[in-house]
């Protein structure tokens, strides 16, 4: 297992800096009051391609030597990694093949195509996605960039927490949503070197709580095709992200679908920021688990803002 | 006629600084590409109370002597001035009475109440609004703070353009939406001292184009109760704002309802910023009048982000 180090993070940051935004950190006196905390929102919804995933994807793409880059890159993804990899490949001028569930939001599919990605659709289950991907990769010979179980990707995602602790002093805790665990692993990787006293929490939908159950059980538990409005958080942990989660995460907090949608709407209404449901899971967790965060300085990673504006969750019921 | 000066702007800025945000300026490579320009978005949607109007309202409220302040403040408004005045009055601990059309978005009414404002409803016409207001003011004796035809308010709104030119060098033009003309007048007031070479444009809905027709005619033309999705832009110019518009505005550009909604959705989708329809009118005008802005550095005032999330214009048809 190729475990990335802090040196890999520093190298990644230098490599990807020309291709990403150093995103701002925002605050909300209204949400602070509701939560009884001081929250510092790292706005990766304002990132290139609309999500933090462009950090890891860019690190993988721009770290390839020319011969490997020439055969292109390929991945399977529930959405944001797909469009981030397409974006990064487009900037390097190499092809990008993407396997996506046909149920992925139309906004994400058209964004992938907009960045020049080539989509092959599969069923919305991990097994179908992996089988379809094997066919695509065999046909193209492209470099596989896994959405999260990849040292290059984790080192790239770690640059987000590296920026956050440079922007905001004295954080008691940082919380990020957890699906496959790429962002959480990157956060662990960066903070264990830069701010080892800062606690790391993850937040997860009750309906896709496999990471929470994994942490309790002390081993990876993987569900096939859970259903949740937080479509970026349906995938399971893998060995590399499990390594970081098991060693560094204080707790994984779960929230209901209703709590996710309410928190998403709260951020839109009060902060005027478009965030996707996966990003709202952390805010919902902070509001629900008030005692865990009360009186503390908490970094909150708003992971992305790619939403189908024609199908908002509060207009769907 | 009490015409505010640049000294009033500097004094206003010092007075209101503890009560407002110095809002960030954002950019969008995607919208720049579409427009063929370099756009600098002054994000007043991220302002306290969700709109620039808190600048003028705070200047009026905190400029009152204690005796006058004790009787409270009152206004009529299509929305954002109402909640901004309620916010400012709340911070000073004085009452705020507001006359609002019963058709105003529910989000704005409940925000006014949330800030402690007391609402009296009227019909959605200028005549009904003014008659109802006269009754409320007679009953309370409160200080009238007009939403825009007020030197204190215009000096307050001018602090927005004052910040913008401090944040971004070398703007060739600035564009703001025009309803009653408070923001545009403040922009004229600030830029005529600070950046006299910067052109000032206004943008207006075709369906509420009274300011555009006024500029062409050389006199104020006022419509009663025009219909447009840009609900902040339905009110007519008054003598004080007409003074600034007639003397400093290069042109007023109009756009259709469809163009406004498309531009609003574009900003939400690409910039991940929640803006209200009135704020989208400028973006629509820049995309429509490409030749006017092509190749130039243009400041764009995103005036507010108070939207009823349960009634978005693209889900209403």
What's the layout of helices and strands?
The structure is a homodimer of 317-residue chains.
Chain A: H1 6-16, E1 25-26, H2 29-35, E2 38-43, H3 53-62, H4 66-70, E3 73-76, H5 80-92, E4 96-101, H6 106-114, E5 118-122, H7 126-140, E6 143-144, H8 151-167, E7 173-177, H9 182-194, E8 199-205, H10 210-217, H11 239-248, E9 249-255, H12 257-271, H13 277-288, H14 290-293, E10 297-302
Parallel strand pairs in A: 2-10, 3-4, 3-6, 4-5, 7-8, 7-10, 8-9
Antiparallel strand pairs in A: 1-2
Helix pairs in contact in A: 1-3, 1-8, 3-5, 3-8, 5-6, 8-9, 9-11, 12-13
Characterization of this structure:
The structure is a homodimer of 317-residue chains. Chain A is α/β, with parallel strands linked by helices and 317 residues long. Chain A has two domains: 6-52 and 150-315, Rossmann fold (3-Layer(aba) Sandwich); 54-144, 3-Layer(aba) Sandwich (Rossmann fold). Helix content of chain A is 47%, strand content 16%. Chain A contains 14 helices and ten strands. Chain A has helices at 6-16, 29-35, 53-62, 66-70, 80-92, 106-114, 126-140, 151-167, 182-194, 210-217, 239-248, 257-271, 277-288, 290-293; strands at 25-26, 38-43, 73-76, 96-101, 118-122, 143-144, 173-177, 199-205, 249-255, 297-302. In chain A, the strands form two sheets. Chain A has a six-stranded mixed beta sheet with strand order 1-2-10-7-8-9, with helices on both faces. In chain A, strands 5-4-3-6 form a four-stranded parallel beta sheet, sandwiched between helices. The longest helix of chain A has 17 residues, at 151-167. Chain A is globular. The first copy, chain A, starts with 5 loop residues before the first helix and ends in a 15-residue tail after the last strand. Chain A binds chain B through residues 24, 26, 45-46, 50, 107, 265, 268-269, 271-275, 305, 309-310, 312, 314-315, and chain B through 24, 26, 45-46, 50, 107, 265, 268-269, 271-275, 305, 309-310, 312, 314-315.
């Amino acid at each position: 297992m190729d475990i990335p180090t802090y040196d890999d993070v520093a190298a990644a940051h230098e490599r990807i800096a020309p291709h990403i935004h150093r995103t701002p950190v925002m605050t909300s006196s209204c949400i602070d009051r509701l939560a009884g905390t001081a929250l510092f929102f790292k706005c990766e919804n304002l990132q290139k391609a609309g999500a933090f995933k462009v950090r890891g994807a860019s690190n993988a793409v721009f770290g390839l030597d020319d011969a490997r880059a020439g055969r292109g890159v390929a991945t399977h993804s529930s959405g944001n990694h797909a469009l981030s990899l397409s974006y990064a490949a487009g900037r390097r001028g190499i092809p990008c093949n993407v396997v996506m569930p046909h149920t992925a939001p139309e906004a994400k599919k058209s964004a992938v195509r907009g960045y020049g990605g080539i989509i092959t659709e599969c069923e919305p289950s991990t097994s179908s996605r992996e089988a379809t991907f094997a066919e695509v990769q065999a046909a193209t010979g492209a470099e596989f960039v896994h959405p999260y179980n990849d040292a290059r990707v984790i080192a790239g995602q770690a640059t987000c927490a590296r920026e956050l602790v440079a922007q905001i002093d004295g954080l008691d805790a940082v919380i990020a949503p957890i699906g496959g665990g790429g962002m959480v692993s990157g956060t662990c990787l960066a903070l264990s070197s830069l701010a080892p006293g800062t606690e790391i929490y993850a937040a997860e939908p009750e309906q896709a709580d496999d990471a929470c159950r994994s942490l309790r059980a002390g081993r990876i538990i993987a569900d096939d095709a859970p259903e949740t409005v937080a479509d970026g958080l349906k995938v399971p942990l893998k060995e590399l992200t499990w390594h970081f989660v098991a060693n560094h995460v204080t707790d994984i907090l779960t929230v209901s679908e209703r709590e996710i949608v309410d928190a998403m709407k709260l951020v839109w209404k009060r902060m005027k920021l478009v965030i996707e449901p996966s990003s709202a899971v952390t805010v919902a967790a902070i509001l629900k688990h008030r005692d865990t965060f009360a009186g503390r300085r908490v970094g909150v990673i708003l992971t992305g803002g790619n939403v189908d504006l024609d199908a908002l969750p509060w207009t769907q019921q």
